[in-house]
Each structure stands twice: as structure tokens, then as C-alpha cells.
């Protein structure tokens, strides 16, 4: 970090943002570059201002602080994260054990100065340790042209593994996500269902199933058999249902 630190404040309460801004005005070599009211806005402003540090409230509507931190760490140059919170002592133990820096509200100047001096980007293991404190993620973060885009999970029709990437398909566009399909299935098992070894489909976007002639089998060999496909909302595409997963059709 440089001698002059650019700081982004993210808190859904205006008095809390004002309090932090006032405290920071008493600390030399820091510059507040932007203020955000939620995690999604924090990421958007971080893309623009590339802050050194983000002061991140944990409990915010929509994208909360912990999810926002996970997305921010995918930036080309991730900012250091200092959480601000009124969480109870049980949750604080999780932060302490993970060596994640936080400021307990009401925030005091001396503690803020100390946190800024030792602020650093979070390690993946630290994020993993505190993730259970947050509800299920509401957005996927996509790296695109040096920026991080947030795609609502509710907008995704399917997730398909292709080489080392996952194609994230919405009604409007396709995106590429560098992630494990197995990890995504585990994390979003209540939203997506595996219809094929390489594809998870959002349950809410399945209109039904239909049997169609199949030119190639699952191994790419010529075939004249019929096979089951899932019909999807908001797209003419269909997703093949593997033999192993055909019990799901019977269940419906």
C-alpha cells in the first residue's frame, strides 16, 4: 500500500457512514474516495475507485458484508477488508479465530487507526471460515475486462461446465465463471439440480421434460435413440437429461 490510503466506506446506515468519515478525517494519510449503502454498491464503486481499504458493514440488505468481501477478493488488486459490526460475542469468536480484522460498533478512533495500520487482503481460508455467518450468496461474481460483475443467482437459467470454466446462462447473456461445478452444486443445491454430469439447471426455470430424437449419445457416438431433454423458460435451448438423472423426471 502507498503512504496515502484510499478508503471506501460501506454501511447501510447514514449515521454510521458519517461517524466513520469523521473519524477518518482525524487520521493522516487517508482519503475517503466513496461511500456505499450496500454490498452491491460497494463492489460497483470499488471497480471505479480501486480503494486500498474497504470498511465493510456486515449486516446490510441484499448483498451483505461477508458476501461483498467474497466478491471484492476477485478483483485484480483486492482491497484490504476491515469489517464493522454489532455482531454478538459468539460471532466475534469466528472472526478472532480466522484472524479477520473487525471493528465493533461504536467504533473508537484508536481502534480504527490500529486496524488501518495492519489492514490486508483476506485469504481464501479466512473467507471460507466466516462464510457460515452469512446467508447463502445472492450473486455470482464474474471477472470481465478487469471489472467484477455481479449476476443475481435468481437470473441464472443454468450452469454448464466447459473446460476450466462454467458458462453462466441468463435470459440475456452468457458469462464465464472460473469455479468448480461440484462446489456450485453443493452451495446452491436448493436452487439448482444436476440434469447432466456437466450441467446444473435452476429448478425455477424448468418448464417440463420431453423425449426427442438424439443424433449423438452422451459419449459423442452416433445414435438413433430418443432421449429426454428439459424445456426451459426464457430460452429455446434444451438441456439433455443423462440416463443417471432420469429418475428426476419420474419424480416430477
TrEMBL record:
One of its GO terms (cellular component) is protein-DNA complex. Signal peptide: none annotated. Pfam families: LytTR, Response_reg. InterPro entries: CheY-like_superfamily, LytTR_DNA-bd_dom, Sig_transdc_resp-reg_receiver, WalR-like. It comes from the Bacteria. Residues 140-252 form the HTH LytTR-type domain. Keywords: DNA-binding, Phosphoprotein. The modification 4-aspartylphosphate is found at residue 57. GO terms for molecular function: phosphorelay response regulator activity; transcription cis-regulatory region binding. SUPFAM superfamilies: CheY-like. Residues 6-120 form the Response regulatory domain. GO terms for biological process: regulation of DNA-templated transcription. This is Two component transcriptional regulator, LytTR family.
Amino acid at each position: 500500500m502507498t503512504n496515502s490510503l484510499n478508503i471506501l466506506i460501506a454501511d447501510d446506515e447514514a449515521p454510521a457512514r458519517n461517524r466513520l468519515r469523521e473519524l477518518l478525517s482525524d487520521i493522516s494519510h487517508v482519503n475517503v474516495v466513496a461511500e456505499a449503502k450496500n454490498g452491491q454498491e460497494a463492489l460497483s464503486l470499488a471497480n471505479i475507485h480501486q480503494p486500498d481499504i474497504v470498511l465493510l458493514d456486515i449486516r446490510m440488505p441484499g448483498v451483505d458484508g461477508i458476501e461483498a468481501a467474497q466478491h471484492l477478493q476477485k478483483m485484480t488488486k483486492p482491497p484490504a477488508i476491515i469489517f464493522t459490526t454489532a455482531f454478538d460475542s459468539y460471532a466475534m469468536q469466528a472472526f478472532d479465530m480466522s484472524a479477520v480484522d473487525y471493528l465493533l460498533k461504536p467504533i473508537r478512533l484508536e481502534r480504527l487507526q490500529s486496524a488501518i495500520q495492519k489492514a490486508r487482503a483476506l485469504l481464501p481460508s479466512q473467507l471460507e471460515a466466516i462464510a457460515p455467518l452469512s446467508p447463502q450468496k445472492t450473486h455470482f461474481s464474474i471477472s470481465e475486462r478487469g471489472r467484477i460483475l455481479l449476476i443475481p443467482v435468481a437470473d441464472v437459467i443454468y450452469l454448464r461446465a466447459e473446460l476450466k470454466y462454467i458458462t453462466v446462462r441468463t435470459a440475456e447473456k452468457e458469462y464465464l465463471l472460473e469455479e468448480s461445478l461440484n462446489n456450485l452444486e453443493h452451495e446452491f443445491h436448493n436452487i439448482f439440480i444436476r440434469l447432466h454430469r456437466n450441467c446444473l439447471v435452476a429448478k425455477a426455470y424448468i418448464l417440463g421434460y420431453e423425449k426427442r430424437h438424439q443424433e449423438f449419445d452422451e459419449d459423442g457416438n452416433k445414435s438413433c435413440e430418443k432421449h429426454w431433454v428439459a424445456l426451459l423458460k426464457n430460452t429455446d435451448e434444451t438441456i439433455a437429461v443423462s440416463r443417471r438423472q432420469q429418475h428426476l423426471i419420474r419424480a416430477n
